[in-house]
Design brief:
By secondary structure, the chain is of the alpha+beta class. The protein has 5 helices and 7 strands; from the N terminus they run ααβββαββββαα. The termini are far apart. The relative contact order is 0.17.
């Protein structure tokens, strides 16, 4: 969770144990989430040299980051479901983006969602977080991207609570840019899958 907060990722619905599927295998994108949306795709979407973009991953989460004196790039990719038939991925995508579900805990409310054309088999944008939920070829993942002015480093309050409040305000203030940048990266991902 700490990595997700630092990387700018929002917590999403937990995968219900009944839908978790078989244990991960070596070729499973959940073991290599940075292979789903690659550093090169991020570099292409935001015109930044790929060699300058930091990449980290943990479990099914991949984070990319680049920063200079003024500007910041943050991208998070969370692979949520993989399956050859696609049934599990479709079911989890539908549950996560349709609102309340009896199989998912209400601890992390999300939405409302908007359909996004031209990305994967289906894509829906969470308008509250700018997370893009993408379904394609038996794969379901979420994506969030921001590229622009970096946030101020000085906290508006004392200690950790002030830093968290500052981060939360900055996140809310950048939602319009996140919405645009996340969809742009989603289109780069979708375009890369259509190339021979």
């Amino acid at each position: 969770m700490a990595l997700a907060l630092l990387a700018g990722c929002t917590a999403g619905p937990a995968t219900p144990p009944a839908l978790a599927g078989p244990p991960d295998t070596a070729g499973d994108p959940r073991n290599a989430p940075c292979a789903v949306v690659t550093r090169q795709m991020v570099a292409s979407a935001f015109s930044i040299d790929a060699a300058l973009i930091e990449q980290s991953s943990m479990s099914s989460l991949c984070a990319y980051r680049w920063e200079d004196e003024r500007d910041l790039l943050e991208v998070t990719v969370h692979v949520r479901a993989v399956g050859a038939s696609g049934a599990q991925a479709r079911e989890l995508f539908q549950d996560a983006t349709a609102g309340a579900s009896p199989r998912l805990p209400p601890a992390n409310p999300s939405g409302p969602f908007e359909e996004v054309a031209g990305i994967g088999a289906k894509a829906r944008l969470d308008t509250g977080t700018s997370d893009l939920h993408v379904l394609g070829d038996g794969l379901y993942f979420t994506l969030n991207a921001y590229s622009g002015a970096g946030r101020r480093t000085a906290a508006d309050g004392a200690g950790t609570a002030g830093a968290v409040d500052t981060r939360t305000r900055w996140w809310q203030d950048t939602l319009p840019q996140r919405r645009q940048h996340t969809q742009a990266l989603g289109r780069v991902w979708s375009g890369s899958r259509q190339e021979p």
